[in-house]
Amino acid sequence: MLSKDKLDRINFLAKKAKTEGLTNLEKQEQKKLREEYLKVFRKNFRKQLECIEFQD
Questions:
Q1: What ranges do the domains of the chain cover?
Q2: Are 43 and 2 in contact (CB under 8 A)?
Q3: Residue 13 CB contacts under 8 Å (≥ 6 apart), including other chains
Q4: Which of 26, 30, 43, 51 could connect to 22 by a Cys-Cys bridge, CB 3.0–4.6 Å?
């Protein structure tokens, strides 16, 4: 699970990108944070799918 601080930072960078734009350093940070978020998301989603049982 991603920490609240990291999620807040992702949201802050997204809002800043829309309003005033990001520096190259901020773009790199945003890319790294998004990749980390997607990795955690995929892991959790896979766990959910593995828990599904089909019944007739």
A1: 27-51
A2: no
A3: 22, 26, 29, 30, 33
A4: 26
